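REQUEST ID: PR-0412
SUBMITTED BY: lab tech R.K.
PRIORITY: routine
TASK: structure prediction, single protein chain
INPUT:
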Amino acid sequence: MAKLSQLQQAYANPNMRKMLNLIASSEGVKHGYNTLFGNQQFNNLGAHPNVRKAFKQTDGTTNHTTAAGRYQFLNSTWNNLAKQYGFRDFSPQSQDLGAIALIASRGALDDVLQGNWQSAIGKLGKEWASLPSSTYKQGKRSWDFVNKHLGSNIQQGNHPKFVDLKALGYKPQTTQQTQPNFVDLRKLGYSGNPQQNTQPQFVDLKTLGYKG
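STATUS: complete
OUTPUT:
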């Protein structure tokens, strides 16, 4: 857990302010620190408003949220932050420091301060559903959106992709050995020519029917 003094020091870093602005923009808040989920405005910043609102996820399921503020804190999340850091209101300063505390809790504080955007965003998708690295069933921003706001050139393709070979027709056999299980890509429809060198061979999974 980062100390309050660390949060305050981090806020003075220009990269941190860039990240906070990106998160707010990604969340699409129209009333800044006074925004309820769904972009309804509230006025009293004395405490988290704790208004429960329904919404539909991208899978069609109805869910509920108490998200509020510039960084769309859930009420339960905010209560934990207030207890840990002694926040006595929901003021802009408290919200900024609270967001930095969440960034630190995800292990992304140093990444942000050093401008390692790809690494930072990869970690923060678990905290903010609107970031492109998020796995939540909610709408999220593109990497182009991120690059525009950060002035960076993050390439989504730089992230490793895990492919379910079963979806490509591969049926592994259960073995009791610890040796690596080599897959004959020719059985999956790959007709590439083997390379006569020691370099690893990269296969275009699209030729195998993968639509990632």
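NOTES: Helices lie at 4-11, 14-27, 75-85, 92-105, 109-114, 117-124, 143-150.
REVIEWED BY: pending
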